[in-house]
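Figure 2 data, in text form.
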Amino acid sequence: MIDLRSDTVTRPTDAMRRAMASAEVGDDVYGEDPTVRRLEEEVAALLGKEAALFVPSGTMANQLALALHAQRGEEILVGENAHVLLYESGAAAGTSGVQLTPMPGGGLFDAYTLAPRIRPPAFYYAKQAAVAVENTHNHAGGRVFPQADLVELADLAKLRGLGVHLDGARLWNASVATGLSVATLAAPADTVSVCFSKGLGAPIGSAVAFPASRRDEALRLRRRMGGAMRQAGLLAAAALYALEHHRDDLHADHRRARRLAEGLAEAGFGCDPALVETNIVPFDVDRPAEAFLAEARELGVWLGAIGPERIRAVTHRDLDDDALDAALRALATLARE
């Protein structure tokens, strides 16, 4: 099978497994795991933030950050079709009691769009606490959130007393696509989440960065959410290895995504290669998505659906050029049919 469902399907390399096996560990609940501490310090430094916390999943990283910004019953403005809104099982409402209000624009919005949606304070409104953006934006097809727009909307949010959270699960991809450092991309935000188990190829783990003054509160929230781990250095070692050895490989993922988009367009699918900026390739088909997925699977290609007749393909480090070409040949067959 050629698996294009997500960049989360990768397997640890032999070198990563060796790094995990040799990791120095301790009880992280007591703050005694040196490998976890090293990862957290490395992530904070890369993002230009004061502190970071290692957590099991991207959902926990985002929800922890939202809970740092908002109290129960308060509101956070988010991009349309944001991961925190669509793909985290209602965690904001169920875990923290926070309501999420989507902004129009397909996920990428600016200060002009944000301004009229910041309400004046009144007891009959939900108190607005923060704005959350996603970079890259998954549902928008891996699009990069324009940095100039992020800077302007963050300035507006802070002027109006709102915090800013950056869901940077694929911020590493945004950095490669733009040539900007992850610290530059993260600078406008108060809190930032990043993922190690997507494009970087670690088996598990994310991190959330925040001001050092919020660390005790973040530790409490992580424990409340069930994310406190013991000898977590085994997992942190994989993330550290990925940060050191796999970030440059994202260039190849992006190159293959553009090749995939071009091939899909040539085959007759509804795909605009000019909109493929990173490693996610959305395209339209002329039949129900579930039927198309079943047909593609019969030909040895796994894909995902993101709409009634819209498909998502994701390139990743376990996909080579030969597999990509084989996938294109199979999908071209479906286009002809």
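Caption note: The CA atoms of residues 255 and 279 lie 8 Å apart.
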